Amino acid sequence: MNLLFLGTSAGVPTKTRNVSGVALRESKGKGWYLIDCGEGTQHQVLHTKLSFHSLKAILITHVHGDHCYGLPGILASAGMGGRKAPLTIVAPAGIKAWLEATCEATQLCLPFTLEFIDSDELPSVEFESIAVTTFRLSHRAPSYAYGFTERKVDADLNIEKLTQKGIPRGPLWGQLKQGFDIEFAGEQLKSQDFLIFKNKPRKIMIAGDNDQPDLLMDACTGAQVLVHEATYTEEMAEKAGDVGHSYGKLVAAFAESVQLPNLVLTHFSPRYQLNSNATPSIEDIRKEAQSVYSGSLYLARDFSEYTLDKAGRFAELSGE
Amino acid sequence: MNLLFLGTSAGVPTKTRNVSGVALRESKGKGWYLIDCGEGTQHQVLHTKLSFHSLKAILITHVHGDHCYGLPGILASAGMGGRKAPLTIVAPAGIKAWLEATCEATQLCLPFTLEFIDSDELPSVEFESIAVTTFRLSHRAPSYAYGFTERKVDADLNIEKLTQKGIPRGPLWGQLKQGFDIEFAGEQLKSQDFLIFKNKPRKIMIAGDNDQPDLLMDACTGAQVLVHEATYTEEMAEKAGDVGHSYGKLVAAFAESVQLPNLVLTHFSPRYQLNSNATPSIEDIRKEAQSVYSGSLYLARDFSEYTLDKAGRFAELSGE
Q1: N or C, which end of chain A is more exposed by having fewer CB within 10 Å?
Q2: What positions does UniProt annotate as the active site of this protein (chains A, B) (predicted)?
Q3: d(Cα B270, Cα B11) in Å, to the nearest integer?
Q4: How far apart are CA B237 and CA A87, in angstroms?
């Protein structure tokens, strides 16, 4: 699995950072998922190798504009680019009504079907190689985190059990290895009972705006990576008041408490600059977070790319 | 008056060109008007000196997404940037309903008032230094051209007429020179009857999508500049079929027929590249247009900037 950040600014874009959008790519093939779609996300996609034809789903964390104003344009462009396959949209209910109003008002007739799934019902959605689960967060608008768990994990056949059961070497072994349940000697046999898994399934949590990271305690079980907003430093968060956002240290302290191995912070207020000598700088958020977290900490930039390998090792890919 | 192109691509953005948006700046002060607002227009504005505080009005030519999907984001950012002054939006009626639906669905509460004016009623709108008139075009959706005419033109007093009338040199002369009508010896006297205008008022026509440039014949009277779409070359326009767009030669032939001195083409299909050696290139559109037009022809690029001086001279400013 692979993460590619398309925007890391909160609220408004800056000259160097777009508003929210993250692409999660499947480990095999070209399939990808878009989590949030701020204005200009389609422009960012133009500078990557991502294709709208292989986009499996768009998941919106909440209805605020910096997380969804790019939706009409990205759908229109996918349509003009010839996409025909239905597209799943997992989003709070308001998004469905808004997109319908948009199509109506702007004469947008998409050549593909949108299949809406309401985040407010905390759905679990299974795609071919990834299962998505939904968790509620705390923000000014209903906000959600999405967990992406690998469905098929590399496994070896348990030869001892197969032999014990008397299943003959051949096509049935192949089916079991590929994850299919079989019928043998009048009995239903489950694939997972005859496999030895090499690794735990990969799991990445991607959270929307949220001022209570603790809400993700159960959600983070088994996750190798959490992507979470860190809009401010602690001092700035206090000045900003009750706006429903987290600061770096708060998120990092939570990640430490659940022994999460990898934390990626994003959604930095536009006042924070990339330059580490600037005031304030994104480095200020890093320092605070690092002070309370012993895992691997990453602060995303636009076009930052990370990979999570089969063994659960997470790393930033070097830029082009 | 000054034109700054923020996007020159039709339908979808490319790596080097955004979708439609043009800034028209007043000759004095910082006031500006935004004509069309495709997705990412606010991102383009970040790379200019334009401020959302001095934006006088947004005028939308028609409801298609590549001309209006940047509206919610630009309004939200103007609000977050502290704008308080009301903002005039001249647009087809569908835009008002769509923006209201957007504010509702995405919890967008703007700290300034939107004053909508319905283009479908072909309004004439007077701002402090510019008057805007509206003209109907031909496209798949109701589409409009907006004419921007300078309201105050430099003038000298007609001393001979003032002396003839016996008006004493002093404050009354000053009022007449500044364009105010006066009462003198029981008679209402009109400012314009005592002025000698140095130049014709400046006038720029900016048209939306349109497949019948001839419709602008009357609108172009007195205009020094027409900005018009030229989505294709003639050959490509024939292939594209009845999609409501113009090709360069069609627009240029019209401009020639009304002896328009300056024509700026824009809104090129994304397949046309900037590189003159590419196939197809925007240069192909230029060549066709140039073959039938004897005035000054310009093909806009993103961030192309043009100035129209008091004497009606139009010129491209060299890039930074």
Answers
A1: C
A2: 66 (proton acceptor)
A3: 8
A4: 31
pLDDT in tens, B34-68: 999 999 999 999 999 999 999 999 999 999 999 99
Q: Which residue type, as a one-letter code, is found at position A169?
A: R
Contact (Cβ atoms closer than 8 angstroms) between residue A37 and residue A60: yes
Does B141 touch chain A if contact means CB atoms closer than 8 Å? yes
* Candidates A6, A9, A12, partner chain B, best to mutate (most B CBs within 10 A): A12
* Of residues B11, B42, B70, nearest to A80 (C-beta): B11
Positions of A marked active-site: 66
Of A46, A77, A107, the CB nearest to B63: A107
According to CATH, where is 3.60.15.10 located in chain B? 2-153+198-317
Torsion angle, alpha carbons of A25, A30, A34, A37, to 10? 130
Low-confidence stretches of chain B (pLDDT < 70) are 319-320
Structure tokens at A116: 């809406």
Q: How near does any CA of chain A get to the CA of B171, in Å?
A: 51
What fold characterizes domain B2-153+198-317? Metallo-beta-lactamase; Chain A (3.60.15)
SS3 A320: coil
| 8 Å CB contact of A15 and B69 | no
From residue A121, alpha-carbon distances to A46, A162, B109 in Å are 33, 41, 26
- The first and second tokens of residue A230, run together, are 């860190």
**Test the B interface: residue of A75, A77, A245 with most B CBs within 10 Å:** A77
Query: Which chain B residues touch A14 with a CB distance below 8 Å?
Result: 46
